[in-house]
Amino acid sequence: MLIPQPYLLFLGDVTDPLSAKTAKGIQQWRPELCVGQHRLTSETVSLGLNDLTLEQAKAQGAKTLVLGTANAGGFIPENWLSTLSQALDLGFNLASGMHQRLVDYPELSAKAEANQCQLFDVRHYDEPLKVGNGLPREGKRLLTVGTDCSVGKMYTSLALEKEMNRQGLNTEFCATGQTGILISGRGISIDAVVADFISGATEAISPSFSDHEWDVIEGQGSLFNPSYAGVSLGLLHGAQADALVLCHEVGREHIRHLPHMAVPAIEATLVANLQAAKLTNPNAKFVGISLNTSALTEAEAQALCRQWEQQYQLPVTDPVRFGIASIVDKLHSL
């Protein structure tokens, strides 16, 4: 999946800022790709970008209209269809991270074909894939893993990519989720892949390379989350990672949506992920721990990072509060 850029971010008529997290992610990590925003009402949440009509955005070079919002159920509202249809008539491609597919609308599919435009349903993946083989491949890779889902693996991966490039380590971000794909413009939504092909899909996301130094592969789920552990294991095997970074939310009391499941201990998480990673890369190692410390004061967060650095003998940081340079510094020796 390779989505033409730059983007016009479509916010529809949503009024809940949390519903626009996909568009916000694109704006934060790839601001140079955002021509502007398109809103259906003045009450719609704003990203602070220029409000553009479809015609204005097209004239400014936008190639893809991105549905930058999410809602309960992941459906495309009926009152958006006229805007999407108009965009196709103007030559826009459409990209969506919704569960409901753009291609399931006959009108949109017909207009896309007539106007030689593409419909990108990034939450889905229907192309042929091979099973993983574990063969060594060229290039160095870093994978983010977690104590649970939604603990900051995508944020950490993008922060690492940015800091690694700043420090002169030529790095590319490899997306494995719908928001990451829209941010980078390419990738495979791993949770949409049939289980037998997860490791193979990961190998396809980060094949052999010699034109840059590192791939940073976005992690998904957790080996300790019974709902998503299979995806996490496939990523660990397919990534063939040289370096691992553990992500954790401080203060989380149980696995997300599963109050009967305790969040695993840090030591147990390090051991389990390293053991799984070594199946395809015997030299895999942890290079740091990335924390979400929003439940703590800044002073408490600093103290915890210092304490855990001593305890686990790894750089520990909150990338939002303190940056992630301490972890990247460790990569120069690999």
From TrEMBL:
Every D-glutamate N-acetyltransferase-like C-terminal domain range: 131-328
Domain called D-glutamate N-acetyltransferase-like N-terminal: residue spans: 52-124
Top-level lineage group: Bacteria
SUPFAM superfamilies documented for this protein: P-loop containing nucleoside triphosphate hydrolases
Name listed for the protein in its UniProt record: DUF1611 domain-containing protein
UniProt source species: Photobacterium sanctipauli
